[in-house]
Amino acid sequence: MGLIPASSPGNHPLGTAVRNVIRYKGLKIAVFENVYEPAEDTYLLAENIPREPTRLLEIGTGTGIVALTAARLGHDVTATDVNPAATACARWNARINRTPIDVREGDLFEPVRGETYDVVLFNPPYLPPSELPEDDPIHAATEDPTVIRRFLRGLIDGEVEWKKAYLVVSTLTPDEHLRPLRHLHHRTVATRRLFFEELKLLEITRGKNP
Fold it and tell me: What pTM does this model have?
């Protein structure tokens, strides 16, 4: 998978705590405090980015690892995240990797509403809620599947112009949050089996499944 420890946690020059630093496919990725650390769902998405260069949007960029991987493939990348720690982290990682991406803070499509993208990527919070407090960044990154429904409604309602979208879901994702998929054509293009669940990467286009 290309994931190895890179250096010790500490502080980056702006004073933000760094929980971990990892290497992935030639990228050096700092993981700031209160930012979701790349995991199997991240790599499922990163390993299946379309290869043909496009104008690409990543929602919920976190550390920016997927957005930076896409930029290294030649895509013109815009990345958004509602978490200000994540947007700071993604900007820092773009800087240290000398890979330009446009990082914007805001909820889902809010920072890019009305713009046009060929490809939209999203690794959303897809697990049912646990005992974590709602303001915990791990809850926000992994345990609020209502965000999936809002994302799909944004695609259907045309909050941005788009051609294809790629969405990570899990066999643990509550079905109620996937119902808007009935109004979109979708297919599974990659999977990854974990101990308690299977991750799926859905390719979504306009139209409905037969």
Answer: 0.87
How far apart are the C-alpha atoms of 49 and 70, rounded to whole Å? 7
Q: What CA–CA distance (Å, rounded) separates 80 from 111?
A: 7
pLDDT the model gives residue 58? 99
Domain 34-205: assigned CATH number: 3.40.50.150
> Which string of DSSP letters, residue by residue, matches the chain?
---EEEE--EE-TTS-EEEEEEEETTEEEEEETTSPPP-HHHHHHHTT--SS--EEEEES-TTSHHHHHHHHTT-EEEEEES-HHHHHHHHHHHHHTT---EEEESSTTGGGTT-B-SEEEE----SPP-SS-TT-HHHHHHS-THHHHHHHHHHHTTSSB-SEEEEEEETTS-GGGGGGGGGSEEEEEEEEE-SS-EEEEEEEESS---
pLDDT single digits (tens) 34-54: 899 999 999 999 999 999 999
In whole angstroms, give the CA distance from residue 46 to residue 109: 20
Type of residue numbered 100 = P
Nearest residue to 127 (alpha-carbon basis) of 174, 81, 82: 174
What pLDDT does 195 receive? 85
Q: Is the dihedral of CA 59, 62, 64, 69 positive or negative?
A: negative
